[in-house]
Fold these 2 entries.
Entry 1:
Amino acid sequence: MSEEKTDQYMKPHGVEGIQVIESMNEEHQEISEFAFECVDFNENANILDIGCGGGVNIEKFLKATKGNVDGLDYSDVSVRESIKRNQDSVDSGRCNVIQANVANMPIEDESYDLATAFSTIFFWPDLGESFKEVFRILKPNGQFMMANGIDGTNPADEELADNIEGINLHTPDELEEYLLEAGFKSVEMFKKDNTFISVIIAKK
Ligand SMILES: C[S@@+](CC[C@H](N)C(=O)[O-])C[C@H]1O[C@@H](n2cnc3c(N)ncnc32)[C@H](O)[C@@H]1O
């Protein structure tokens, strides 16, 4: 185990957390672009981005729907950065960024049409229970979309796991099993050619 493991990806904090968020905003662009190609949603969809980090995907969804786009993250730095980035929509009431753990979201049942998770599920506690919590806050026929740049099948993933605190790698097949157990009716998988970028869409 390396002594240099960083916990900044699991939960950004302090000044270094702000820097890590800025770099993720850039580095995760390709994942985000592919995810937007894969997911379909209604023009009035209400969306929740879980583990929203710097709020870049909140910003994109605000342009893509007329509905509300909220963010949720347990890091105070992520919440602050997401609000800063989307300040106009926060002020106008179209965006609310909540500080909470995905395992226990202070959100009513059946609130959202789409929940998204970009490069964050590796850090979630008890994936099965967390997926059930996402299922709970989705409306009937709602969807849950996950976009990841690592899928546990790349030999290089192990090195990442040695350097990043709290990361748990799951293959797409394992994720599908957890999703079906959580109650989702169907699971669709997309893989970007010649990359390890994957998008999984589960329907309620
Ligand atoms: C690697 S960053 C990804 C940020 C952003 N989604 C992106 O694509 O750039 C992971 C984010 O998920 C958040 N996160 C991790 N585990 C969480 C949990 N259990 N509940 C809420 N947020 C969590 C972290 O605080 C961090 O902001």
Entry 2:
Amino acid sequence: MYPNITIDEKKLRDNCDYLSRLCNDHGISMLPVLKAFAGCLPVINIIASCGFPRIADSRIENLKRMRDLSQKKVLLRLPMPSEAEDVVRYADISLNSELKTIRALNEFAKKNNIIHKIVLMFDVGDLREGIYYRSDYLGMIKNILSLEHIHLYGIGTNLTCYGGLIPSEAIDSRLASIKEKIETTFPIQLEIISGGNSSSIPLLLKGKIHPGINELRLGESMLLGRETAYGTPIKNMHQDVFSLQAELIEVKTKPSYPDGDIGMNSFGEKPAIRDEGLMKRGLLAIGKQDVNLNHLTPLEDVRIIGGSSDHLIVDLKDQDYEVGDHLSFSVNYPALVHLMNSEYVHKPIKK
Ligand SMILES: Cc1ncc(COP(=O)(O)O)c(C=O)c1O
């Protein structure tokens, strides 16, 4: 069945093993981030069987699908107050930064007679989620500690996602000093100091992660074998765990320039098309509804020239392709996320 995003099980396992060993060697526990799989259990089971004690996703709906797995579930995106009941039910741990939400979690945890663990997020300069690290946060900690059904399990930060802030020892030390300040003010020990995501891999490889950091939450590096501070491939990891295959539904030689006045295309944009004379063109059964076509790279010698919601058009460079043939593409992280979310795309696992 096509189109499909093929998952190479062995390569995925290799990537998980490599990264978890790298983390362990530096006293860090790796939290695998599964959000790219849109809750697709056959793929998630592969990672879950690699020996991780905890697994993470940004959507509570996905964690709900994973409820029968034995690992502790971590909700990555700050909960909406309106979903607090589900968060308490389907996540063992959630990342938080707002007292109102934490109080809502406390209420539902009390109702269910459980303790919900939270990792309090601090913004150390990237300017997405978290309490700004220079602000006065001790009053909030006091309030959290007074909640009987909330356990302040740790603190964390997220880097390079909005502001592009590159992790460094100095940036890490901002989080480490928050831990110290909390632990010297209150009689508690924080178990988790969650220092960031795949953008911390270059620092990890240099052995320069701050010793206070004991967890990294890793998604893209595990799946695509690439760190995200500079976008470089990680040695000894696979960059081709995933590939897209799509089927040719038309192969015809036609002019490359539209014949008449040009207005808008189906996405409301004025198309920028070059006149390259006659061209052997292939039409593939996949479109912008499934993936941003700019995020695909052909693995054969063909060139993407455009598409619409249900079609991808390629220049076949006069090669002998026929209707029914399949073309392969490599995918970047956004493409992987979109393809996994499309119910029109099949997800076969290559054993
Ligand atoms: C809070 C949080 N932590 C970790 C990650 C994982 O990031 P990456 O895929 O760069 O490792 C994400 C994004 O998916 C996130 O939102």
